[in-house]
Amino acid sequence: MTNPGKDAIDAALRAAGAAHHDYESNVLNGQRDEQWAGWYAAYTLGRLGDFTTPAQLTAWLASAAGDDWADAAAGAVLAGLG
Q1: What is the 3-state secondary structure (H, E, C) of the chain?
Q2: 38 touches 51 (CB < 8 A)
Q3: Most distant pair of Cα atoms in the chain: their distance
Q4: What is the pTM for the complete model shown?
Q5: Dihedral, CA atoms, 42, 79, 81, 70, nearest 10 degrees?
Q6: How confident is the model at residue 1 (pLDDT cuts 50, 70, 90)?
Q7: Per-residue pLDDT tens digits for 4-63
Q8: Where are the domains of the chain?
Q9: Computed over its alpha carbons, how large is the radius of gyration of the chain?
């Protein structure tokens, strides 16, 4: 499988963010999801295919930081993929 590009990862993470916000609001009744990175990883892999393992993607997402988190996280994923 070919690795997705930064734009595709960024778009998937932004979509995951919107869906996860709804999940926290409606399913968790406004509570913070402590396992958010795994949730984002599962959503992203479901959208883009199995370009890495869920555990590895979760770790990359959890370590990402920046003013534009999705952009920073997409960069972290690409760096991890090498």
Answers
A1: CCCCCHHHHHHHHHHHHHHHHHHHHHCCCCCCCCCHHHHHHHHHHHHHCCCCCHHHHHHHHHHCCCCCHHHHHHHHHHHHHC
A2: no
A3: 39
A4: 0.91
A5: 20
A6: confident
A7: 999 999 999 999 999 999 999 999 999 999 999 999 999 999 999 999 999 999 999 999
A8: 6-81
A9: 12
